[in-house]
Write a structure and sequence with these properties.
The protein is an all-alpha fold. The protein is built from 5 helices and no strands.
């Protein structure tokens, strides 16, 4: 467009009316291009909103399916499911016991450790005497 406008403005054979009509055609084409761009933006925005809704539905379905898988795994093999829960609980108790610097909290955790690890009374006494 800029090359044409330079060419049209520098051509001595083009009069002002021709230049004006040429500029008007350029403006009309730019207006058409602008409308086309606006339509494309609107179309892409609509498509993006639809994709966002689709993504949300997929995420909800994924959450439902994961819950269903957990439920089915627990019903098919309840021992494994229970063991995994106990293992997580045990890990948290042991980590808390090891990481805490508070002697009182460690003392309160010893009976929990004893139960979770199924320690004998002598093993529990050993832990209590070390603190």
């Amino acid at each position: 467009v800029s090359t044409q406008s330079t060419w049209a403005a520098s051509d001595p054979n083009i009069n002002n009316d021709q230049l004006l009509r040429w500029k008007e055609r350029q403006m009309e084409q730019l207006a058409v291009d602008l409308e086309n761009a606006k339509d494309q933006i609107l179309s892409l925005t609509t498509e993006m909103e639809e994709l966002h809704l689709h993504l949300q539905r997929n995420q909800q379905q994924e959450a439902v399916l994961k819950d269903e898988i957990r439920r089915l795994e627990a019903s098919v093999n309840p021992d494994v499911y229970a063991w995994n829960e106990q293992k997580d609980y045990m890990k948290n108790v042991v980590m808390r016991y090891i990481m805490t610097k508070e002697a009182e909290l460690q003392q309160r955790l010893i009976p929990v450790l004893s139960a979770v690890l199924q320690l004998t009374s002598s093993e529990t006494q050993q832990l209590l005497s070390k603190r």
